[in-house]
Amino acid sequence: MDKITLPPNGLPQELTNIPYGQVYVLTDPGQGITSTTVQKIQAVISIAGDLGQKGIVYAIPVDAPELRDCYICKVKTKDGVKMLVADKDSIIEMLCEFWGMDYAEAIKKIVIKDRYKRHVTIGGESHPIRIPVIVGNSEHSSKEDARMTLQCLPEYSKPETLSDIRNAFQDIFYHNLGISIDEITNLYEEVKKSTKSYHLIINVERDDESGKITNCKFFLEDNHGNKYALMKPKDKKGKNPLDEWEVQWKALYLTFIWFKEGLPVKEIAFNKEFYKTFLTILGQLPKGYNKPDMVTLWDNSKSKFSKIRKSIMDATHDTYARDQFSIDGYSKDLYKVSGATDDNRETIKKEFGL
Predict the structure, then answer these.
(1) In degrees to the nearest 10, what's the CA dihedral of 259, 265, 270, 272?
(2) Which end of the chain is more exposed for a tag (fewer CB within 10 A), N or C?
(3) Rounded to an integer, what distance in angstroms lies between the CA atom of residue 14 and that of residue 74?
(4) Range of the domain at 124
(5) Which of 133, 151, 179 is the last residue of a domain?
(6) Which of 133, 158, 175 is where one domain is finished?
(7) 58 SS3 class
């Protein structure tokens, strides 16, 4: 490619969630991993071998056509965390920054094999794009205030996390940082002590005489006993109306909690079991008389997801709580409330007769 261009809406959020210490080749989701993808991966590994570095390279699909066939990684710089995006003419420059090496010295050691020359060049005219990553709750919150977009959950697994820790240990040894086991242990205990966890409380109120549901409220409670009421998100001026969620938000949220394994968003438009559950819950909530059809519910679902997500952020100012208790997932995969428990589902079963 002659020039790297970003999508009109910027770098997709899911790409900023990639771990440190790994390089990714961005692929077309419609084609998957092709022989070209494999050669690009092998080219990076070959360069790593020439420079005596470790090459951990993966492929990741991306919907934005502008980014396909590019390379991407995340690095920490003196100016903060940045995403680096490179093409074939700038991949070596990107890798030098990724490994903390001098470009002029590195290219003296690199020998590009013939089979990789169409994927990697030395001395190309383009340079990597450097995109700052906003880290921290307040910045992320203000960003969501402006756009109200649905984000995507990053995947976490024990093997990948252990790999990240291994890479951190390698940095300690490679760069002679002199960090001791005691310092690591103390840091572990400090993080463990300061890390919050949450559980969801579904509070259903009923009329004493009729037994009908008069309200349904949602709270998050952290491991220190603090409770956070989930209310409508702040408006564009930053004002919080202190109003409860709209009735259809509540019904949709409860339905997704009930569907423990989650549901692809597109199925809202035709999944009869999901729709029946939604109507059963909605019909028992106050002011639940306006019942959308399946297609309308699907059309409006992502807007509701975004507002629920933002209301959790407004209440807790914690991205972990937001990601765990929003209706969230991958754009083409399952959406669910990851932090909901079987106790929550038992409450829904009991209160709504499911």
Answers:
(1) 10
(2) N
(3) 12
(4) 13-133
(5) 133
(6) 133
(7) strand
